[in-house]
Design a protein that fits this description.
Enzyme class: transferase
Protein name: Riboflavin synthase
Low-confidence stretches: none
CATH class of the largest domain: Mainly Beta
Number of helices: 4
Number of domains: 2
Helix content: 10-25%
Radius of gyration: 19 Å
Pathway: Cofactor biosynthesis; riboflavin biosynthesis; riboflavin from 2-hydroxy-3-oxobutyl phosphate and 5-amino-6-(D-ribitylamino)uracil: step 2/2
Keywords: Repeat, Riboflavin biosynthesis, Transferase
Mean pLDDT: 91
Function: Catalyzes the dismutation of two molecules of 6,7-dimethyl-8-ribityllumazine, resulting in the formation of riboflavin and 5-amino-6-(D-ribitylamino)uracil.
Strand content: 35-45%
CATH architecture of the largest domain: Beta Barrel
Largest sheet: 6 strands, antiparallel, barrel
Shape: globular
CATH topology of the largest domain: Elongation Factor Tu (Ef-tu), domain 3
Oligomer: single chain
Structural class: mainly beta
Distance between the termini: 34 Å
């Protein structure tokens, strides 16, 4: 579990195709010395496992499935990644609950510079649109952000200077594709209340008419 607050920006130095996996070598002197084998680290929003490390860099293994469902398939040596170690239960949850399980890819379709801040507009895959709500949380490339506006298949976020300067979003431009994770709470609500929910839940398949009948 993560928070979407980026600890450091690392650089992919090498991508090696192994036996059914890709090995990514990542340079990050900020967090590498504090890692341990088997630790979970989010690379641009994808939860991966530390396989080796030294005082300046570490490696992770990525399956073909993960490569195909994330932006890693387009990354090359020299690409930057946002890094965050797993949440400690004694820490403040300053972002939102992020699992590190990428749901899809969001493409930047608009960028407006407003003084020192940016207004970025994204196109979201159709099957994920229902999980995106105005003022709700969303994770893009491992960064916890707030949806400022949603219109049909698009949503926008407002970036403050600190977020721009401290994450890989500083190089964001129209056409870029980012790892997207929707709010996990929305998925749980859908599972509990939706038509496909299991068990004897009295709220199963709840409708607007039922809500009105119950006084809402």
């Amino acid at each position: 579990m993560f928070t979407g607050l980026v600890e450091a920006v690392g650089r992919i130095d090498k991508i090696t195709k192994g036996d059914g996996v890709y090995v990514l070598s990542v340079t990050s002197p900020e967090i590498a010395p504090e890692l341990y084998l088997g630790q979970s680290v989010a690379l641009s929003g994808a939860c991966l496992t530390v396989c080796s490390f030294n005082d300046r860099a570490f490696t992770v293994e990525v399956t073909d499935e993960t490569m195909g469902k994330t932006k890693f398939s387009t990354m090359k040596p020299g690409s930057e990644v946002n890094l965050e170690r797993a949440l400690c239960l004694s820490s403040r949850l300053d972002g939102h609950m992020v699992t590190g399980h990428v749901d899809g890819i969001a493409e930047i379709v608009g960028k407006k510079v407003i003084g020192r801040s940016w207004w970025l507009t994204f196109r979201v895959p159709e099957h994920l649109q229902k999980y995106v709500v105005t003022k709700g949380s969303i994770c893009l490339d491992g960064v916890s952000l707030t949806v400022a506006e949603k219109k049909d298949c698009k949503f926008s976020i407002a970036l403050i200077p600190t977020t721009i300067g401290e994450t890989t979003l500083r190089t964001a431009t129209v056409g870029d594709r980012l790892n997207l994770e929707v709010d996990i709470i929305a998925r749980y609500v859908e599972s509990l209340l939706g038509p496909g929910s299991e068990g004897n839940n009295p709220l199963k398949g709840i409708s607007m008419n039922q809500l009105k009948e119950m006084g809402w």
